Design the sequence.
């Protein structure tokens, strides 16, 4: 089946003091219609950059895609003009942001924000848009949506605001929803509700979902497939079950080790030693070498490529076979 | 809590006093008092200006030299000026001119300043450099001098007065709006707006501008006060409102010459001006709160 979204060898960077600093160094992945994909990694690994690139929002942050392409329904999005972007955003591809506290316009009632979004994309009457906004609020589980539609964002709780964001993102029935850390700013109890909601809406509408998160728990709950990013590159790609049962890349192994759980007892929490390399730092060889317990001589010389294994997963590590066989 | 209740009993404050105190704090904290005063002062002045023909039977421009420089009395509430004209009538009719001028000047200044500030802050780069360069040039002139130059070139007249003062005042608004725009355009809800497919125009006028309203209103009301004063300076120099028509500025200007014989001549129009400006500023504060939904219904 042909993927709905394809990202190929995407390089993104910015200019600083005359030097070009690369943030994404060749990101490649694809997404099928109706699929849910998780993008996992630490802060600064390029997860959010990837989503901004897909939305065409790089320019606002002073960033630029220098190489590669993003294919959406056979068109390369990087060739889009402002007008094309406007038609795409919110209509075909929508986005939910991390901070529901600040992602809503504080001066417009939530009902109006949603109906304005509908009016911007579809030739419907004001009344129809308003009714649909209320219907959307109902769908995302907001009680008494007729009244709530007249609320200002500051009158709603964080979870409610995130529901409003989701309603706004979905009101024009997009084919792809990008959720950038949608639950990070919320209480744990609310997190689960929001994830359930996202999953339910995805199944109802058949849209594709890209979920960006640093929380592996979130991924295991919602995503069918996962890509793990590190320092601007994809280091591993696998289905959820593959990844959680047998991680291949040492970074993924470390991430899974770092997950805390109640039955682990009272031992010290695990953390991956070292830190993420800063953008612009030149590294010869694998970017993870300094933090990797399996790093060998070859890792300091050669940059590993994303290669496909026999069972159809992808990993970017020179030694993954040794690691899985337990030689190391 | 037992302890606190005994303490309260020990103090034995009568309930009526407590209730009054409660009411007072609520009144104070809600800003209702300021709103009310601002609204009353400004409203009274506007009404007085509009109803001038019904509030006084005197014609503000008819001389009566035998009545010159009379102190306030039952016949002439605010006294008379050096030509025997009724000052109460002149203050009322002057209010029409002064308030209208203040309003128009701010309308012009806010329109120009807001538009240029939005464009400057949003697009940045060369556009920003040019607009801010222009604003800085305007800042470096003493405003009144520039207004005099414009008036001298265009000739005296009400419309020219608006233009001159408006052209002097816009840079302040422009700077404020530019700074606000620069900070607002990096806020997440603006980015979310883009992600939802909003156009640049929509971002500017639906996301950024409404979030500037509060501050613009405050600056504009402050500017009204300045405009009333600036008009008085220009009128004083003979470039503003032309005699014999009264304006507050020209009243104070003329009254100054008779400060020792007839102090009320200068003092009363000055007081009226002061009270009005105070009222407008208080009203400005109220309006700012009103533009912020978080401050509403509090």
Sequence:
């Amino acid at each position: 089946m042909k993927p709905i979204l394809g990202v190929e060898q995407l390089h993104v960077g910015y200019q600083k003091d005359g030097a070009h600093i690369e943030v994404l160094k060749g990101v490649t992945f694809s997404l099928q219609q109706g699929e849910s994909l998780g993008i996992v990694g630490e802060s600064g690994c390029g997860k959010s950059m990837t989503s901004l690139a897909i939305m065409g929002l790089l320019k606002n942050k002073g960033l630029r895609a220098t190489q590669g392409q993003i294919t959406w329904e056979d068109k390369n999005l990087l060739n889009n003009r402002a007008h094309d972007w406007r038609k795409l955003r919110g209509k075909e591809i929508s986005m939910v942001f991390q901070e529901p506290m600040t992602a809503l316009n504080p001066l417009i009632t939530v009902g109006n924000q949603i109906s304005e979004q509908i009016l911007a994309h579809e030739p419907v009457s004001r009344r129809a848009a308003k009714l649909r906004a209320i219907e959307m609020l109902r769908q995302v589980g907001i009680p008494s949506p007729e009244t709530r539609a007249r609320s200002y964002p500051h009158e709603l709780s964080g979870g409610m605001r995130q529901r409003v964001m989701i309603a706004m993102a979905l009101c024009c029935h997009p084919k792809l929803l990008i959720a950038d850390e949608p639950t990070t700013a919320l209480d744990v109890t609310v997190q689960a509700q929001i994830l359930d909601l996202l999953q339910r809406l995805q199944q109802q509408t058949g849209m594709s979902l890209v979920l960006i998160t640093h929380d592996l728990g979130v991924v295991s709950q919602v995503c069918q497939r996962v890509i793990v990013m590190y320092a601007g590159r994809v280091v591993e790609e696998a289905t959820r079950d593959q990844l959680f049962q047998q991680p291949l890349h040492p970074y993924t192994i470390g991430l899974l080790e770092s997950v805390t759980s109640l039955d682990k007892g009272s031992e010290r929490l695990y953390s991956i030693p070292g830190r993420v390399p800063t953008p612009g730092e030149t590294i010869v060889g694998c970017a993870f070498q300094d933090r990797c317990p399996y790093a060998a001589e070859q890792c300091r010389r050669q940059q590993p490529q994303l290669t496909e294994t026999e069972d159809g997963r992808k990993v970017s590590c020179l030694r993954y076979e040794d690691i899985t066989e337990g030689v190391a | 809590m037992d302890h606190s209740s005994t303490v309260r009993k020990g103090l034995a404050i009568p309930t009526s006093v407590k209730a009054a105190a409660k009411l007072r704090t609520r009144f104070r904290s809600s800003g209702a008092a300021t709103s009310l005063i601002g609204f009353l002062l400004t409203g009274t002045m506007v009404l007085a200006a509009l109803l001038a023909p019904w509030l006084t039977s005197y014609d503000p421009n008819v001389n009566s030299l035998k009545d010159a420089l009379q102190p306030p009395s039952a016949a002439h509430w605010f006294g008379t000026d050096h030509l025997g004209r009724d000052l109460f009538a002149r203050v009322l009719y002057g209010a029409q001119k002064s308030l209208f001028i203040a309003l128009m000047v701010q309308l012009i200044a806010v329109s120009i300043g807001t538009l240029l500030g939005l464009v400057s802050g949003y697009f940045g780069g060369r556009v920003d450099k040019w607009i801010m360069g222009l604003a800085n040039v305007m800042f470096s002139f003493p405003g009144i001098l520039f207004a005099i130059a414009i008036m001298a070139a265009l000739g005296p007249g009400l419309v020219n007065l608006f233009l001159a003062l408006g052209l002097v005042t816009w840079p302040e608004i422009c700077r404020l709006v530019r700074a606000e725009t620069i900070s607002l355009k990096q806020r997440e809800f603006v980015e979310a707006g883009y992600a939802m497919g909003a156009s640049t125009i929509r971002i500017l006028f639906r996301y950024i501008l409404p979030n500037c309203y509060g501050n613009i209103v405050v600056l504009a009301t402050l500017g009204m006060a300045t405009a009333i004063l600036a008009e008085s300076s220009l009128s004083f120099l003979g470039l503003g409102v032309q005699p014999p028509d009264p304006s507050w500025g020209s009243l104070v200007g003329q009254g100054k010459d008779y400060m020792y014989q007839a102090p009320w001549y200068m003092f009363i129009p000055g007081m009226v001006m002061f009270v009005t400006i105070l009222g407008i500023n208080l009203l400005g504060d109220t309006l700012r709160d009103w533009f912020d939904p978080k401050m509403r219904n509090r």
User: Anything to note?
Assistant: Residues 5-92+174-274+284-325 of chain A form a domain with the Rossmann fold fold (CATH 3.40.50.300). Residues 188-205 of chain A form the longest helix (18 residues).
